[in-house]
Every structure is written in structure tokens, then in C-alpha cells.
């Protein structure tokens, strides 16, 4: 009788697995890699539309990575910008809830699942580099219920330790920082349960910003905000208020933010000391750090009427150009070219070192500058997708 029960259970299990899909994560490459991508029009002075990508996808050369959902599986798919063909599919047999893909570096993307699994994918080659499991946080059960209703209890960002990328994973009242090369946990915050406040942490938020991780903690209505070393989690300095939530790493031990009055503030990462302040930056209505354009020597910002490039070293104005007011004030720059919206549908390309206008391009719908890397830029056009320009 017992043998019959065992066999029956085994048969039922196999049938169920056949229906829902075998558990685990699989990668299915399709076609050869074409990395790096050098399309016609790349590197020319004029603005050339060289391809299209899905809206908000992460782009690596000619492969755009986006989330993919199916009846039995969920995961990511890499699609070629050139012809829309599938470069690879990454699937999770358990079909658990996932976050948006997280860019780790110029070749790799992290797939993060709300059950704590993290997988690093090499985009050009279409292969899984490493897989890791995050331990449950102290608020696992409460945050799991919150996730199912609101989908907002996890937050993933990136930091660096020199040239090493670090994945900053905030989940369930716990912060884990993973080595982007291996997936090993470098450090965690709080480091143990005794580090939490006696009455319980009412909120914990964090984000990576270059070589620091900014932690925003509220315990029983009192803030305890700290900047930690991204390398090892050491406390560097404390701060008040939410001004640094949108802080942007500038490199050279610098961190930029915008205060409530619209001034551009640049601090030293190691001790939080303010190095310079540009009170006339005009960023009161543009407080978000991600709207800044950052290169190795300049930080460029867009006010209501101007685009201004400040020298990172001392805050002096390198150049300033008058432009009309637009909804999107994001600045894209790589130190050679700078892109900003001139009006609702027109993109203007500037010489990043002088502010000289190089070219203009009018699109068929409203535009939103989104990203720039490797000589290419992504411009959101309407709600249909991104135009990739060179």
C-alpha cells in the first residue's frame, strides 16, 4: 500500500512539473554575438537614428534587454536592435515575481527575483555568469505581503569599489551588497539584529552612489541617515533630510546633489564635506540627480532657461548656453557629446567641452533623453519606444 502511495505521488509530481515547467533558470542563446556594435552613423558629427529599442529596455551594443512574462515562465529576453530578432532568452521555471533588469556594467545585467535569487547575465554572449541567493530579511513576511499588493518593498541599485561593480540590494528590512564579479555578499546592513532600533525599524531605504551607499533610516519618527563605504560598509558620515536621495557620483571622490533652494552642491565622499556650492544653478524645479550629465571633468545641468557645465574640480562655470524651457531637463553627456531637449520634440547635440551646437534633430513625438554610453544615446520618443542615435 505504501509503495502504491509513493509511486502515485511521484507520477502526480511529474505531471505537475510537466504542466508548470521544470524548476530552475535556463538560458537559451540564439545566434552569434555582435559586440561591440558599430552601426553606420556611429561617431559622425550629425544626429543619426541608428535603431529602435523597447521603451525603458537596458541596451548593450545592439542587444536590448527587457522583462518577459509567459504562462509558465518569466525572465528576460535580449532582442537585437538591428532587426528585432531574439539574441537569447533567460527563463525562470518557478515564474516568481521579478524586478526590472539591473545594469551592472557595459556587458552584464542582473536578474533579481523577490524570493532572493539573483543571476548575472553576460548580454553579448547570452550566458549566466553566476547565481546567488539573498538571505531573508527581518521583515520577510510583512514585506512579502506588501510586495504582492504594492510591489515596492525591494530596491536595487549599483555602487563601485574602484573598478569592481557592486549590486546594492535592499530587501525585507535588510541591505546586502554583492560583489558584481562573483555574487558573494561583501557586507550587510544592519550587520546583526541588535543593530536595529529597539522599537523596530519603521523604514529603511538605500541607494548606491559611486563609492558610497546612502542609507535612509527612520526609527520611531527619528531619522538616522548615514553614508557607508561601498567597499566594506564602514560608516563614513551622517546627514539629515532627504536632499541626498538623488545624489549623483561624479568620480574623483565627489558626490553631487541639489538642495531645496535649487543650488548644486558637491561633497567629498570620504567625509561629506561640502567642497563647493553653485547657488545660481537654478535647479529648484529640477531636483533629481539623474538629470545631471556627468563626465570625467564636468557636471552639466539644465535649468528652466539654460544648460550649464560646471568644472567638477572647483565649481567654476566652463560654459553656459541659453535654451527654452522644456518638460524633460535630463542632460546626457560622455565628455565629448552632450544631448538635451531643445523643445518638446527637438533634440540638440552640443560639444561637451564648449557648449557649441553641433546638430539638431526633430522627432515625430515628444522626447525624453534617457541614457548615453559607448558613443550611442537612447532617446524616448512618445510612449512607443527609444530611438538609438549615434
Helices, strands, pairings?
Layout: H1 2-20, E1 25-29, E2 49-53, E3 58-60, E4 63-69, E5 74-80, E6 86-92, E7 102-103, E8 108-112, E9 117-122, E10 127-133, H2 140-150, E11 154-161, E12 164-171, E13 174-179, E14 185-189, E15 203-209, E16 212-219, E17 222-223, E18 225-229, E19 235-239, E20 248-251, E21 254-258, E22 264-268, E23 274-278, E24 293-294, E25 298-302, E26 306-311, E27 317-322, E28 332-333, E29 337-341, E30 346-351, E31 357-362, E32 367-373, E33 376-381, E34 385-389
Antiparallel strand pairs: 1-6, 2-34, 3-4, 4-5, 5-6, 7-8, 8-9, 9-10, 11-12, 12-13, 13-14, 15-16, 16-17, 16-18, 18-19, 20-21, 21-22, 22-23, 24-25, 25-26, 26-27, 28-29, 29-30, 30-31, 32-33, 33-34
Low-confidence stretches: 9-22, 146-152
Mean pLDDT, all residues: 84
Query: Can you count the helices?
Result: 2
The 3D shape can be described as globular
Can you offer a commentary on this structure?
By secondary structure, this protein is mainly beta. It has two helices and 34 strands. The protein has helices at 2-20, 140-150; strands at residues 25-29, 49-53, 58-60, 63-69, 74-80, 86-92, 102-103, 108-112, 117-122, 127-133, 154-161, 164-171, 174-179, 185-189, 203-209, 212-219, 222-223, 225-229, 235-239, 248-251, 254-258, 264-268, 274-278, 293-294, 298-302, 306-311, 317-322, 332-333, 337-341, 346-351, 357-362, 367-373, 376-381, 385-389. It has a five-stranded antiparallel β-sheet with strand order 1-6-5-4-3, with no helix packed on it. Strands 15, 16, 17, 18 and 19 form a five-stranded antiparallel β-sheet that branches. The longest helix has 19 residues, at 2-20. The protein is globular, with a radius of gyration of 23 Å. The termini are far apart.
Amino acid at each position: 500500500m505504501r509503495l502504491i502511495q509513493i509511486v502515485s505521488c511521484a507520477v502526480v509530481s511529474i505531471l505537475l512539473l510537466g504542466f508548470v515547467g521544470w524548476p530552475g533558470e535556463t538560458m537559451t542563446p540564439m545566434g552569434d554575438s555582435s559586440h561591440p556594435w558599430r552601426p553606420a552613423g556611429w561617431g559622425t558629427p550629425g544626429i543619426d537614428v541608428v535603431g529602435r529599442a523597447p521603451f525603458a529596455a537596458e541596451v548593450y551594443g545592439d542587444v536590448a534587454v527587457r522583462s518577459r512574462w509567459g504562462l509558465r515562465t518569466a525572465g528576460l529576453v535580449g532582442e537585437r536592435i538591428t532587426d528585432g530578432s531574439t539574441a537569447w532568452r533567460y527563463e525562470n521555471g518557478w515564474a516568481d515575481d521579478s524586478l526590472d533588469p539591473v545594469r551592472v556594467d557595459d556587458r552584464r545585467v542582473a536578474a533579481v527575483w523577490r524570493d532572493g535569487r539573483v543571476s548575472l547575465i553576460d548580454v553579448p554572449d547570452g550566458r549566466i555568469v553566476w547565481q546567488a541567493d539573498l538571505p531573508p530579511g527581518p521583515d520577510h513576511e510583512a514585506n512579502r505581503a506588501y510586495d504582492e499588493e504594492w510591489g515596492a518593498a525591494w530596491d536595487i541599485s549599483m555602487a563601485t569599489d574602484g573598478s569592481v561593480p557592486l549590486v546594492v540590494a535592499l530587501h525585507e528590512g535588510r541591505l546586502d551588497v554583492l560583489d558584481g564579479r562573483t555574487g558573494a555578499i561583501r557586507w550587510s546592513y544592519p550587520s546583526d539584529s541588535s543593530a536595529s532600533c529597539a522599537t523596530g525599524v519603521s523604514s529603511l531605504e538605500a541607494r548606491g552612489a559611486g563609492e558610497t551607499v546612502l542609507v535612509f533610516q527612520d526609527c520611531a519618527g527619528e531619522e538616522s541617515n548615514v553614508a557607508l563605504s561601498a567597499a566594506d560598509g564602514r560608516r563614513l558620515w551622517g546627514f539629515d533630510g532627504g536632499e541626498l536621495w538623488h545624489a549623483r557620483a561624479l568620480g574623483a571622490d565627489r558626490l553631487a546633489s541639489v538642495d531645496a533652494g535649487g543650488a548644486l552642491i558637491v561633497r567629498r565622499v570620504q567625509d561629506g564635506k561640502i567642497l563647493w556650492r553653485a547657488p545660481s544653478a537654478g535647479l529648484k524645479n529640477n531636483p533629481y540627480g539623474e538629470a545631471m550629465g556627468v563626465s570625467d571633468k564636468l557636471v552639466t545641468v539644465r535649468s528652466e532657461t539654460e544648460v550649464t557645465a560646471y568644472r567638477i574640480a572647483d565649481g567654476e562655470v566652463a560654459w553656459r548656453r541659453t535654451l527654452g524651457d522644456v518638460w524633460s531637463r535630463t542632460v546626457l553627456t560622455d565628455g565629448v557629446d552632450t544631448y538635451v531637449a531643445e523643445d518638446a520634440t527637438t533634440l540638440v547635440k552640443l560639444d561637451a567641452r564648449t557648449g557649441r551646437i553641433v546638430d539638431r534633430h526633430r522627432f515625430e513625438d515628444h522626447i525624453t533623453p534617457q541614457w548615453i554610453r559607448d558613443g550611442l544615446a537612447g532617446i524616448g520618443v512618445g510612449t512607443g519606444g527609444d530611438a538609438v542615435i549615434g
